[in-house]
Amino acid sequence: MFLQHLLNGITIGGSYALIALGYTLVYGVLKLINFAHGEIYMIGAYLGFILISLLPAMPPFLQGSLPLFLLVVFGIAAMICSLYGFYLEKICYRPLRGAPKLTPLISALGASIFLQNFVMISMGAKDRIFPQTIGMRAISLGGVSFTPLQLTIIFSSIALMALLYWFINRTRLGTAIRATSTDPFMAALVGINVDTVISVTFMAGSFLAACAGVMIGLYYGSINFTLGYLGGIKAFTAAVLGGIGNVPGAMVGGFLLGIIEALGAGYFSSEYKDVYAFFILIAVLVFRPAGLLGKRSDERA
Amino acid sequence: MLRLTDLELRYGPIRALKGVTLDVAAGEIVTLIGANGAGKSSTLKAISGIHGTSGGSIVFAGRRIDNLPPHEIVALGISHCPEGRRIFGDLSVRENLLMGGYLLAKHEMAGRLDEVLGLFPRLGERIHQAGGTLSGGEQQMLAIARALMCKPGLLMLDEPSLGLAPIMVEKIFETIVALKQTGLTVLLVEQNAGAALEISDRGYVLEIGQVTLSGTSAALRDDQRVAQAYLGG
Ligand SMILES: Nc1ncnc2c1ncn2[C@@H]1O[C@H](COP(=O)(O)OP(=O)(O)O)[C@@H](O)[C@H]1O
Ligand SMILES: [Mg+2]
After folding, report:
1. Structurally, how many domains does chain A consist of?
2. To test ligand 1's pocket by mutation, which of B9, B10, B14, B205 has the most ligand atoms within 8 angstroms of CB?
3. Which of A277-300 are b and which e, b meaning 16 or more Cβ less than 10 Å from the residue's Cβ?
4. Is the pLDDT of residue A55 over 50?
5. Is A299's pLDDT higher than 70?
6. Is the model more confident about A271 or about B152?
7. CA-based, 20 to 30 A from A27: which of A46, A67, A245, B233?
8. Longest dimension (CA), chain A
9. A293 inside domain
10. Measured between CB atoms, which of A179, A188, A193 is closest to B88?
11. What are the chain A neighbours of B89 within 8 Å (beta carbons)?
12. Are residues B12 and B163 in contact, defined by beta-carbon separation less than 8 angstroms?
């Protein structure tokens, strides 16, 4: 039973981790919590829904190969959401650079409400049901049962995190993101275009959030325009749990939160499933505000 | 090579530079001396574009550069090694240097890294260590090495000897002289005015945002006012 809960927790935790990375990356370069990030994730889920619904209209080579089709769905949703992230920063945050810390927060709330209503009006307020694509027939192995969909989700989220890790640590632009996070003034002095780095950071975070959105849509089977609210807060909790601004921390925090939720739902009560995240958020803020992997000296959010 | 004319810079209501005029010729070491708060760092910040100016002009290699964004100024060949070293502490020594060469073409990077490490062999030994774990002297070496990665024509150093042990200070000054011999132009800001005038060709004295004295370093060393105010008697 424990292993079963663990597996379910890892499935959902991977998505939390992907979204949490967006919070943490943006916090790194701007020391700002992008509270509209959950909406990007929600839009990713809707884009996934739209694209998967288009399957019957797709060219035969895509209809014939499910992995290839899903790759296209994830890719297109992620790219469109990157553009959302790009313009979100450009319109809602860039003009407020240097303003008091509360100002961009209010701007984020505004963006959040706008995006939610935009989706509600264009897609409707009712739940949307994801078309069935990947097999949902459970496979049983040593008492643990899982679906091919679950494996696909776990594998994709780990692959995406590995990709991000490679980008941040092994490429010039990724290293520039880390340099800008430590010292934007010095980053500008070595010739880094800090504005470009900030744009790229928003795009990378939105890319991952979109993928998480498609995964969650596939996993739960139905989506709603308010999805980004709860998902956003949970992923934010995961980022704070791992240490805001810390990339491995966001990954660990995401999986940990998913596992805690699954265990809590399994052993205590599934009705309180969404409450555990808030308990954790409060506990972390009270007892270890810098998070599990954060430095104690870090500036606090 | 570089000419500032009537340069003004403010921090909100504070006028940090009130019309600074100075020039630096190719191949020279020029020293900027002055008390704390005189505007030395502000002068360098204006040149590297990290802080906007409110009047006057900056001309580099025949082109006006005031209020260009910093990355464009680096691309023109001006490198600014700021006060306090500002090493990227979580990045390795190698990554710090790669960031210094951020604007280099891909094929130039490895070669330039070898050249710069040739000047600072000690950094080569610590290449995978996090920058923040180096000693103060090593961090200053890394800061200078990082500033050299972009192959600048003009290197601006802001108080490179500050807070270092005397033996390290000597090393830093030797390094600056060696760099000049490779044809590099240096604009040097120093508290340690004696040592700075020793190695430089010319100097300017800055007082509350204005140039009050200038001349060859030898003449400044012999000047009564400079001796009293900056050379400790
Ligand atoms: N970021 C800043 N904000 C406000 N005032 C500043 C700032 N930086 C420097 N100043 C002021 O500008 C003046 C010149 O400073 P600076 O150029 O750092 O002097 P120096 O490098 O010669 O010690 C000082 O009066 C200083 O207090
Ligand atoms: Mg200074």
Report:
1. 1
2. B14
3. beebbeebeeeeebbbbbeeeeee
4. yes
5. no
6. B152
7. A46
8. 58
9. no
10. A179
11. 182
12. no
